[in-house]
């Protein structure tokens, strides 16, 4: 065994620089919050925003260097595009959180630090070309989220949410590790591409074990992105967690899962893999949309809506190739904008102590606050997939990729379930615009909000509109990401293919 | 000589030793303790003073959790120590970073007041 040379160390540092920068900023935020709790209200969010901006700079810089894969991480254009989507989402989360955290007295330094650590885990998941590193990213993503879900300690729903998420999440992680172990035992490699290539060329005879291992990894990732039938936790956890955390979970955790799925899918597993994805996608779209119809709580509605969107996103993974992955990236961006927008509006409307979270509480709100009425309408229209908003073009690219890849049946199903979605999204708008407020009914929704919240809300509405109208430059950018994914999959096959026949020989030699 | 003969010797000696020990205890040892001793948590040792199912401050859990956290981190030093020579300076820097992160956690815990008993 030789010591790693200085060359490798330098490359490694650059490849993992973005993740390291974000984690280091999180630690600075943590310490700053602990040392100056009096200033935590404005100091920690500012540090968080600064850290995220610094990380974005590092990501762009590392992307421009054109680095080869190093260690267990890849810094290709897919990683760059994906990391930037995560960082944009984290940036918006900090802005959206500020009002909520202040109102609910959750302003402790840990809040933003945990959020940044979780985001760095999401980045690591998408950047890893190795199951071991991917697992590390998964844990780094999940553990801060468990804490954040239970962050409003006084409310028992928040505690319930944290416990449910922790127990089921730990179970899912165990599936991932077991799956990775099976893949390793079948192929002799934990590298995603190398392991996939070895089975494809039938270099190793034990394909069933590889398929079972891959299915277990798929189970864990399906849990993270809430695909039916691994979605049971979603409504309860989303409802109980602090609303700003729910928004973060719905976007960043989901995006991270899809980033990992894209990496695994790029390794080209075929046959039973596509059947599995087809079934999961179809079940998720049907079940998520069906259950969303009967929800009265807005957070539960958005939870089921996020399940349904996971089904659409999985179509892009199934279609694969340049068009499919590019559509997934575009959709993630659009989904981030409209979901954050919807949750930002929910945060304002709920009022102190999250009193008004039922859709019925929103009666006639649009009359009292045109800003909330208009922006919420834009987000709901976009989530429903109506033109000219971002959600429509996201769906358009996903569906066309699926048709081109030869899944017309699934696409028809997706279109039909989208129509189902129109009903419950528009119901929110109808309640806000067309119903009279009832004077004596329960806690009325709030409309007053600080300037920052109103600015963020307006900016997100503009972003949803802009992503729809100017979708082609954004699509070109996401195209470069999916091209990078393809290229590094090819490079990994050519660069490292350890002779699989050597592994058993070495083993038997050692035992003698 | 049969190669299995030593096993027979072994069996005989083991049985004889066990029987001898029991017989010795019968003659030399003190009389058997009563059933109340038999059902106590510790047959020999400190006598129990009360039920363990009492309410006690949650602070104990916090201290125990922090102890386990930092205790487990120390475990990671052992594999590093084993391959210290192969890893060289690279490993030393890695471990310094690892301990630095731990130190940040320690300072945080200290500063937040988790180590104070009040």
In short:
The complex is a heterodimer of chains A (512) and B (118). Chain A has 512 residues and is an all-alpha fold. Helices cover 78% and strands 0% of the residues of chain A.
Can you describe this structure?
The complex is a heterodimer of chains A (512) and B (118). Chain A is an all-alpha fold. In chain A, 78% of the residues lie in helices and 0% in strands. In chain A, α5 (109-127) runs parallel beside α11, α11 (243-266) packs parallel to α13 and α14 runs antiparallel to α16 (370-384). Chain B is mainly α. Chain B has one domain: Methane Monooxygenase Hydroxylase, Chain G, domain 1. Chain B is built from 5 helices and no strands. Classes of the chains: A mainly alpha (512), B mainly alpha (118).
Which helices and strands appear, and what pairs or packs with what?
The complex is a heterodimer of chains A (512) and B (118).
Chain A: H1 6-15, H2 17-35, H3 40-65, H4 77-103, H5 109-127, H6 131-149, H7 156-187, H8 192-200, H9 207-225, H10 233-240, H11 243-266, H12 272-293, H13 298-319, H14 321-350, H15 365-368, H16 370-384, H17 390-404, H18 408-434, H19 451-469, H20 471-495, H21 502-511
Chain B: H1 5-28, H2 35-38, H3 59-75, H4 77-82, H5 84-112
Number of helices of chain A: 21
What's the end-to-end separation of chain B, in Å? 76 Å
What would the average pLDDT of chain A be, to the nearest integer?
87
Question: At the first level of CATH, what is the class of chain B?
Answer: Mainly Alpha
How many β-strand runs of chain A?
0
What is the domain tally of chain B?
Answer: 1
């Amino acid at each position: 065994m030789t010591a790693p040379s200085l060359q490798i160390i330098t490359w490694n540092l650059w490849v993992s620089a973005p993740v390291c920068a974000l984690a280091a900023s999180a630690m600075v935020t943590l310490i700053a919050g602990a040392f100056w709790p009096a200033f935590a209200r404005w100091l920690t969010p500012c540090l968080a925003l600064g850290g995220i901006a610094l990380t974005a700079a590092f990501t762009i810089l590392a992307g421009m260097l054109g680095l080869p894969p190093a260690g267990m991480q890849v810094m290709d254009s897919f990683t760059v595009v994906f990391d930037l989507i995560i960082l944009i989402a984290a940036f918006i989360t900090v802005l959206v959180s500020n009002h909520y955290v202040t109102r609910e007295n959750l302003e402790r330094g840990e809040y933003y630090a945990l959020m940044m650590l979780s985001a760095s885990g999401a980045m690591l998941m998408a950047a890893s070309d190795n199951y071991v590193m991917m697992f590390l990213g998964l844990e780094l993503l999940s553990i801060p989220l468990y804490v954040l879900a239970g962050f409003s300690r006084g409310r028992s729903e928040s505690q319930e949410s944290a416990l449910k998420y922790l127990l089921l999440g730990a179970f899912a992680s165990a599936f991932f590790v077991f799956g990775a172990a099976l893949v390793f035992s079948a192929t002799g490699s934990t590298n995603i591409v190398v392991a996939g290539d070895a089975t494809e060329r039938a270099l190793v005879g034990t394909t069933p074990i590889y398929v079972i291992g891959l299915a277990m990894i798929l189970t864990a990732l399906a849990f993270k992105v809430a695909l039916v039938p691994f979605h049971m936790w979603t409504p309860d956890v989303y409802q109980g967690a602090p609303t700003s955390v729910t928004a973060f979970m719905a976007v960043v955790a989901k995006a991270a899962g899809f980033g990992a799925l894209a990496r695994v899918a790029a390794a080209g597993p075929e046959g039973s893999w596509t059947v599995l994805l087809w079934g999961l996608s179809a079940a998720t779209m049907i079940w998520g949309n069906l259950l969303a119809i009967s929800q009265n709580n807005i957070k539960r509605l958005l939870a089921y809506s996020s399940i349904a969107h996971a089904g659409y996103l999985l179509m892009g993974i199934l279609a694969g190739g340049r068009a499919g992955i590019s559509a997934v990236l575009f959709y993630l961006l659009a989904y981030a904008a409209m979901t954050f927008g919807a949750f930002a509006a929910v945060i304002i409307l709920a009022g102190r102590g999250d009193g008004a979270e039922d859709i019925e509480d929103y009666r006639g709100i649009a009359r009292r606050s045109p800003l909330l009425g208009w922006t919420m309408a834009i987000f709901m229209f976009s989530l429903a997939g109506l033109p000219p908003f971002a959600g429509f073009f996201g769906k358009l690219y996903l569906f066309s990729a699926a048709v081109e890849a030869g899944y017309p049946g699934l696409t028809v199903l997706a279109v039909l379930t989208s129509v189902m979605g129109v009903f419950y999204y528009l119901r929110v708008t109808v309640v806000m615009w067309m119903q009279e407020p009832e004077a004596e009914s329960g806690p009325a929704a709030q409309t007053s909000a600080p300037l920052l919240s109103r600015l963020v809300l307006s900016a997100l509405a503009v972003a949803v509109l802009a992503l729809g109208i100017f979708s082609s430059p954004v699509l070109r950018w996401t195209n470069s990401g999916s091209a990078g994914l393809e290229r590094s999959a090819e490079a990994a096959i050519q660069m490292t293919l350890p002779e699989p026949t050597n592994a058993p020989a070495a083993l038997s030699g050692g035992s003698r | 000589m049969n190669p299995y003969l030593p096993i027979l010797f072994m069996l005989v000696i083991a049985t004889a030793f066990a029987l001898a020990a029991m017989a010795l205890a019968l003659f030399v040892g003190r009389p058997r303790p009563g059933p109340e001793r038999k059902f106590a948590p510790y047959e020999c040792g400190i006598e129990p003073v009360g039920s363990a199912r009492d309410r006690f401050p949650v602070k104990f859990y916090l201290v125990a959790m922090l102890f386990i956290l930092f205790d487990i981190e120390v475990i990671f030093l052992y594999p590093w120590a084993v391959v210290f020579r192969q890893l060289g300076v690279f490993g030393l820097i890695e471990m310094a970073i690892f301990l630095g992160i731990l130190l940040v956690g320690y300072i945080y815990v200290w500063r937040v007041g988790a180590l104070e008993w009040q």
